[in-house]
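[scheduler] slot 2 assigned
[scheduler] job type: sequence-to-structure, two independent chains
[scheduler] chain ordering preserved from manifest
[runner] begin chain α
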Amino acid sequence: MTSFPRILLIFVILLTLSACFQAETVVKVKTDGSGVIEDTVLIKKDFLDQMKMMVEGMAEGIAGALPGDETQGKSEQSAGAQDKPKEFSLFDEAKLKEAAKQMGEGVTYVEGSKVVAGGYEGYKAVYAFRDINTVRINQNPGEKVPGSPQQDGPDATKTKEYITFSFTKGKPAELIIKSPASAFDKKPESPEVAKQPQDSATPPDALLTQMTAFFQGMKFGMAVVVDGEILETNATYRDGSRIDLLELDFGKLIENPEKFRKFSESKPKSVEEAKLLMQDLPGIKVDLNKEIRVKFDRKKP
């Protein structure tokens, strides 16, 4: 039996998205197949402040539970001060360097900076790669949220929805952007599953109101920018040398109550499934091509 509370749990655990979370990944590719990845992650500042308080509280609790007598506490007071945990921050270069390893062979962390803008706080990180053929980008942004079960939890591998690339040098160069196959190959639910009654313990309208507040302001996107002129492509959304793979603004979904209800009842378990459900919404960009082909060359002077 599938309940509306479980639908909400699916969004929180599997997508790990919240109203305070925004993310954008832009992959920039040169004509020789090298390039950079720009990753921007923002969380609403008031929510981030709550997270900081929780982390500090947990650190103090652990410190208070450590064994030791009163004499040791006095003699080691200065040493303890030096061992005080550093302040919690989304911008953690050690973690960003580790994240580079998940993006494929040869991807390295170049630089990063803290970002504060419009009531949001987060970071922008830049990674470099020598060969786009070895790069993979997880289009599910949930693992970028601190404390997310997608980072280290038992279901971490289930939430990896990798965008991969195939590149051939030449004049023009050709880039193929490959989407995860999960949604395209998904089998329809059996009639027995579809007819299962829903748990009415929580009124659907009340829960939808909660979900509306939860998703308001949430957005994330992914794009590829080629260093040159696009000569030929089957991409759905192209603006000059930029190709948008997805641009999901859940505020647009909330503006249409009927579609939002249908989206909630459909229980998408991945970003790829969410893309299929949101493709017809105004203001939403979703490219459903299984493979996006791009031929490009250097711009003529």
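[runner] end chain α
[runner] begin chain β
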Amino acid sequence: MSTHVSVLFWAAALSIAVVANSVSYVPEAKAAYPCSGKHVYPSQNLATVAANSREGTTFCIHDGTYNVSSAVVVQDDDRFIGLYNDSSRPSVVTTKAHYVFDANQGSDRAVIRGLKISGGVGGNYCEPACGKGIRGGRYLTVDHVRLTRNANNGIGGAGIGLVVKNSLIDHNGSRRFTSLDGGPSQAAGIKSAEGSLTVLNSRIEDNYWVGLWCDIDCNKFTVKNSTITGNGKAGIHDEISSGPAVISGNTIRRNGTLAAADRHAGLLIMSSANVDAYNNTFGANVGYGVQISEDDRPPELGKIKVHDNTMSRNRLAGCGLSGVSCYRN
């Protein structure tokens, strides 16, 4: 090879390497520019701006920190879109409000995207309803959002049609929202009761009690292609629900880490029916990888399939119960 050709060859290789390296540093999530709607800046009170806007408003929320002392009320068809061009997100935080975003006023079809939401406060004086990053909403979509350090739930009390995707739900919940202090257990990264919940391509990490909790017949429950790790009692809890529930393609590891919890499992199925759990990877969960059990609450266990999962030496419990089928694990 001639010297000239050799120089060209190595220059081209170096160019390719630089491009490849630059791609690897592109942030995982960037809000799309431009945002067409009402532009909001950190100098403004986001809760006041939302309260003074018509339903169906798109709020273009510029990067920075928004401290709110009362909840941002979400109306029908509202869209809260974070604008940023680095690895951070606009942060909406409270040290006073029971909810950061409140969609419980009959809100339908709202979208919350590209924000960090934290700080929902509460305790025994207001449990179980308080301490939430996002409360309520029907057909609510949460996309590219981080929900962290809310006293009870990252998201709680939502109605039917909740979809969470491409998001990080971490470090939510606390002892005072569990049975450990004598009150009702509510604490979770996300808890849905009498609604429905879909979680896609998300990370559910290090929440105090449960990662994802479908409770009291939350109907359709879907968790796919997500990582559920480090949650205190269980990574995923399907309880007294008739489904259908589909749990597939997830990594479910190192859950059940809270010694004081009454049960410890990666996937906990309790008095539920119509569950299909397959193609998940378990490992290092405390107690069981999958635990299936039944008490006197309806529905009876039935049509539960746990199959084709990689267990990585995690145990399964309850496979011999009536209505349960476990195979190729």
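[runner] end chain β
[qc] chain β: The helical segments are 3-24, 46-51.
[scheduler] slot 2 released
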